[in-house]
Write a structure and sequence with these properties.
alpha+beta, two-stranded antiparallel sheet
């Protein structure tokens, strides 16, 4: 086995980016396979349609990003209270609680977790 093959054994998914070693392998929608890259977080002021905060991260899931981005948005906008609207990918009990405790109202729908479609029945959506 060459040195490169040995190096791959210790990498997530046995993949390594030679052009961007900081990139991480992200599982796409829990499908068991992924793509090397980054996860970009963006917070937008709904009234003015302007980006007020952003971050590029190696964390593949949005589940732990809500509080951090909401706090950054609130600070950038100079607000005391904030409503944070996010998609179901951000749904996470501790994150929602942390936002609430920080005076941020999180508006995050719970993801549909029914197994009905996989079992051949009608799904919720």
């Amino acid at each position: 086995m060459t040195r490169s093959k040995n190096a791959l054994k210790s990498e997530p998914g046995e993949q390594l980016s030679l052009s961007d070693p900081d990139g991480a392998l992200h599982d796409l929608a829990g499908q068991g396979h992924g793509v090397a890259g980054y996860n970009v977080q963006t917070a937008v002021d709904a009234k003015h349609h302007l980006i007020v905060a952003h971050e590029v991260t190696n964390i593949g899931s949005d589940r732990s990003q809500l509080t951090k981005m909401a706090l950054a948005a609130r600070e950038a906008m100079g607000k005391h209270k904030l409503k944070a609207l996010a998609d179901p990918g951000y749904f996470n009990g501790p994150e929602i609680k942390a936002c609430d405790e920080a005076g941020i109202t999180p508006l995050v729908p719970k993801p549909m977790t029914s197994n009905a479609k996989a079992e051949g029945r009608f799904s919720k959506g």
